[in-house]
Specification:
The chain is built from 8 helices and no strands. By secondary structure, the protein is an all-alpha fold. The protein has a single domain, classed as TerB-like (Orthogonal Bundle).
């Protein structure tokens, strides 16, 4: 009877963090991995590895950051907002390295996927990478197959 009078409420969701370059980069990596509607352990491991190396994090810290990026990616607006943050606050050479990192996530499962490649091209273009740098990242990634 008390439950009818005082029903349990679902807990309020935690507010999403404001995207910064670190979270935007992680969310873009997650977005690439999810482009084919699969999120494989190899892709998760590659994202953790990239976050750890890029931001000098211990494995557990990288996993926590990835989890935060996953939540942000799930509930955040489109790719344009993330790429704008990265484009405005990250040097070109670092954005170019991000292009290579995204390809390593896309290829973590050892196979090509058209949906991932389309997502990658859109992100790389929005990041302001040159056609030559986009082609180089793609060639390097596909050459490792």
């Amino acid at each position: 009877m008390l439950e009818r009078l005082f029903p349990r409420r679902a807990p309020s969701p935690k507010p999403l963090p404001q995207p910064n370059p670190q979270l935007a980069l992680g969310a873009l990596l997650v977005r690439v991995a999810l482009a084919n509607r699969q999120y494989l352990a190899a892709e998760v491991a590659q994202i953790d590895k990239i976050l750890s190396a890029t931001f000098h994090l211990k494995p557990l810290e990288a996993a926590k950051l990835r989890a935060e990026c996953e939540a942000l990616e799930r509930h955040a607006p489109g790719t344009a907002e993330f790429t704008k943050i990265v484009r405005e606050e990250v040097a070109y050479d670092d954005r170019k390295a991000l292009g290579h990192a995204m390809w390593s996530v896309a290829m973590a499962d050892g196979r090509r996927d058209d949906d991932e490649e389309v997502q990658l091209l859109a992100i790389e273009t929005a990041l302001g990478l040159s056609d030559a740098d986009i082609a180089e990242a793609r060639k390097n990634a596909l050459g490792e197959l």
